[in-house]
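Hi R.,

Here's the chain you asked about this morning:
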Amino acid sequence: MALESHIRELTDKHSKLDALIQRETKSPSVDDTQLKSMKLQKLRLKQELEGLRNRPN
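And here is the predicted structure, written out as tokens:
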């Protein structure tokens, strides 16, 4: 059960980060360095989620 909770938490963080990236991309004064950092963080979350989901029980 703890694993499912952790997966939900990471999924929520991933979704919120995605929304933030979308907003920043549309902003006229986007900070490219910060945007790149957020995208890398989002990728790390995705990779962690995939690892947890593919983990044998």
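One quick note: The chain is about 80% helix and 0% strand.

Cheers,
M.
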